[in-house]
C-alpha cells in the first residue's frame, strides 16, 4: 500500500470521535418528505407529478432539464400534497414536491436488479447511473453520468475513489467504507467498466485504519485496484489534491480532473452505483453524520432524502443546549443554516451543530503579511493579495492572481492570525469575475 500527500494544507483539530465508532443506523421513516427539484449542480429538474398524485418508493418525480442534471425520485410511497416553492438549505425557496408518506414503502415496478456487472455494457452502466439520479455524494453533487461521459479527446486512464473525508467532524464515508466495503469496490469496478479504464485507486486518510483494512479485504488480490494511505490533513479530499497525491499529476489552471486523465468519485457515490445495479434502487437515501457538541447523541444515520433536519436532530436526542451555529456539511466548506425545517438533500453529508463559543468569529485585524496563507494554500495561490484586491473592488487584478483557481477550502482563513475574511472576499471576486465574463458573451 502506497502513502501520499500534497503541498500545503492545514491540520485543524479533529472531532471525529463523536461518531467514528458509531455504526450506520436507519433513521426513522419520515411522515413527510420535501424533495427540491434542485439537488445537484446544473439545471434543476421539472416536476412530473402534481398535487393529489399517488407515488411509489423509487418512482421518478423530477425530470432533468439539461445535460448537467440528474432525475429525482420519491423517497417514500404516498400522496403528493404540494408542488410549490419550499425553503432550501442554500437559503432560497426552490420548487419542491412534498409527499405525505403512507408508511407502506410500496416499491415502484421499475425497481429491480439490472443484471450482472460482467454482462452490462459501458453504455448500459452509464444509463443505469443516469436514470438512478446518482450525483457526487461528497457534497459537490455533480451528476455522475456526466463524469462518465468525457469528450472523446479527453483520455481517462485513472479512476480514483475519494475516501479521504478530511472535514474535521464528518464520518459518513468512514462508516460506509467499514460497513459496505464490498459495495465500494463493486461501484469502483462499475466505474472502471463504464469508462473503459483498467486502473482504479482508492485514497483513504491514515486516521481511518479500520476502513483501510476493510477495503483492502474487499479488494483482495485484484491487481487493477490500488489503495493509497493518505497523510491526514485538510483538504486531502479535494479533487485536485487527491489526483496529485495518487498520480503525481497536476490539474492545469482552469482545467478539470479529466485534463489530468482522471475521474474522481466519492466512496458513497460508488455504493449508490452498486445499489442502482444490484437492486435497481435509485438514489433516495444517503448517510448523514449528525454531530457537534450541541447534539445530545451524535450518530451516522441512513436518511431518506427530503427528511427535514428537525426530525433527524430529534432522533439524535435534540439539542443539549442552544446552538450557536448549524451547518450542513463540515465546518470548513459547509453551508450555515438558519432553519431546521430544511430537507436533507443528495449533498447533505452532515448536520453539524456548534455551541455559541465555537461559532464565535473574532473581529478581523489588519494583515501583518506573515505569509501563512500562502504557505498553506494547496493551489499555490496568494490569498492575501486576491482578498485585498477583492475588498477594493479591483476584480481584474484579482483575476490576474488566479482567483478563479481558488477551491474555497478555507485553509487560508483558518490559518490567518488576523482572522481576515480571506475566503469570503475571494468568493466575491470569483462571483464578480464570472458575472463579467457572462455579460461579455
From TrEMBL:
GO terms of biological process kind: electron transport chain
Residue ranges constituting the 4Fe-4S ferredoxin-type domain according to the UniProt record: 357-387, 397-426
InterPro entries assigned to the protein according to its UniProt record, in alphabetical order: 4Fe4S_Fe-S-bd, 4Fe4S_Fe_S_CS, Ion_transpt_RnfC/RsxC, Nuo51_FMN-bd, Nuo51_FMN-bd_sf, RnfC_N, Soluble_ligand-bd
Signal peptide interval: none
Family annotation (Pfam families): Complex1_51K, Fer4_10, RnfC_N, SLBB
Any GO molecular function: 4 iron, 4 sulfur cluster binding
Documented EC number(s): 7.-.-.-
Topological category with respect to the lipid bilayer: Peripheral membrane protein
Location(s), subcellular: Cell membrane
Keywords recorded for this protein, A-Z: 4Fe-4S, Cell membrane, Electron transport, Iron, Iron-sulfur, Membrane, Metal-binding, Repeat, Translocase, Transport
GO cellular component: plasma membrane
Binding residues annotated for [4Fe-4S] cluster 1, in chain numbering: 367, 370, 373, 416
Principal location: membrane
Residues at which [4Fe-4S] cluster 2 binds: 377, 406, 409, 412
First-level EC class: translocase
Cofactor(s) required, per the database record: [4Fe-4S] cluster
Domain of life of the native organism: Bacteria
Record's cofactor remark: Binds 2 [4Fe-4S] clusters per subunit.
Gene3D superfamilies: 3.10.20.600, 3.30.70.20, NADH-ubiquinone oxidoreductase 51kDa subunit
Free-text function comment from the UniProt entry: Part of a membrane-bound complex that couples electron transfer with translocation of ions across the membrane.
Similarity field: Belongs to the 4Fe4S bacterial-type ferredoxin family. RnfC subfamily.
Quaternary structure and partners: The complex is composed of six subunits: RnfA, RnfB, RnfC, RnfD, RnfE and RnfG.
Name of the protein in its database record: Ion-translocating oxidoreductase complex subunit C
Organism for this UniProt entry: Irregularibacter muris
Gene: rsxC
Amino acid at each position: 500500500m502506497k502513502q501520499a500527500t500534497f503541498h500545503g494544507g492545514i491540520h485543524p483539530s479533529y472531532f471525529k470521535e463523536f461518531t467514528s465508532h458509531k455504526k450506520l443506523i436507519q433513521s426513522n421513516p419520515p411522515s413527510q418528505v420535501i424533495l427540491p427539484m434542485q439537488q445537484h449542480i446544473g439545471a434543476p429538474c421539472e416536476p412530473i407529478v402534481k398535487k393529489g398524485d399517488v407515488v411509489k418508493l423509487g418512482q421518478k418525480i423530477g425530470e432533468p432539464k439539461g445535460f448537467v442534471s440528474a432525475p429525482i425520485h420519491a423517497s417514500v410511497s404516498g400522496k403528493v400534497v404540494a408542488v410549490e416553492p419550499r425553503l432550501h438549505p442554500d437559503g432560497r425557496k426552490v420548487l419542491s414536491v412534498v409527499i405525505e408518506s403512507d408508511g407502506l414503502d410500496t416499491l415502484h415496478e421499475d425497481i429491480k436488479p439490472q443484471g450482472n456487472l460482467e454482462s452490462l455494457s459501458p453504455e448500459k452502466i452509464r444509463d443505469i447511473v443516469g436514470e438512478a439520479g446518482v450525483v457526487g455524494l461528497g457534497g459537490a453533487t455533480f451528476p455522475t453520468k456526466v463524469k462518465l461521459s468525457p469528450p472523446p479527446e479527453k483520455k481517462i486512464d485513472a479512476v480514483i475513489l475519494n475516501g479521504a473525508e478530511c472535514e474535521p467532524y464528518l464520518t459518513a464515508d468512514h462508516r460506509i467504507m467499514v460497513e459496505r466495503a464490498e459495495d465500494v469496490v463493486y461501484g469502483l469496478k462499475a466505474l472502471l467498466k463504464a469508462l473503459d479504464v483498467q486502473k482504479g485507486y482508492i485514497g483513504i486518510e491514515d486516521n481511518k485504519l479500520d476502513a483501510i483494512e476493510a477495503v483492502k479485504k474487499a479488494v483482495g488480490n485484484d491487481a487493477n485496484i490500488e489503495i493509497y494511505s493518505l497523510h491526514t490533513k485538510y483538504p486531502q479530499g479535494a479533487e485536485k489534491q487527491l489526483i496529485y497525491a495518487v498520480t503525481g499529476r497536476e490539474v492545469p489552471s482552469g482545467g478539470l480532473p479529466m485534463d489530468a486523465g482522471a475521474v474522481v468519485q466519492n466512496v458513497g457515490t460508488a455504493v449508490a452505483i452498486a445499489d442502482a445495479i444490484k437492486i435497481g434502487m435509485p438514489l433516495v437515501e444517503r448517510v448523514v453524520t449528525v454531530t457537534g457538541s450541541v447534539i445530545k447523541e451524535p450518530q451516522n444515520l441512513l436518511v431518506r432524502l427530503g427528511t427535514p433536519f428537525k426530525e433527524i436532530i430529534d432522533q439524535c436526542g435534540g439539542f443539549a443546549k442552544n446552538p450557536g451555529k448549524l451547518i450542513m456539511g463540515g465546518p470548513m466548506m459547509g453551508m450555515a443554516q438558519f432553519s431546521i425545517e430544511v430537507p436533507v438533500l443528495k449533498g447533505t453529508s452532515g448536520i453539524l451543530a456548534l455551541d455559541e463559543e465555537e461559532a464565535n468569529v473574532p473581529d478581523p485585524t489588519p494583515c501583518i503579511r506573515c505569509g501563512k496563507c500562502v504557505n498553506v494554500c494547496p493551489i499555490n495561490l496568494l490569498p492575501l493579495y486576491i482578498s485585498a484586491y477583492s475588498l477594493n473592488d479591483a476584480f481584474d487584478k484579482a483575476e490576474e492572481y488566479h482567483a478563479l483557481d481558488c477551491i474555497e477550502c478555507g485553509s487560508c482563513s483558518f490559518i490567518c492570525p488576523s482572522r481576515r475574511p480571506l475566503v469570503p472576499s475571494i468568493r466575491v471576486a470569483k462571483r464578480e469575475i464570472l458575472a463579467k465574463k457572462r455579460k461579455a458573451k
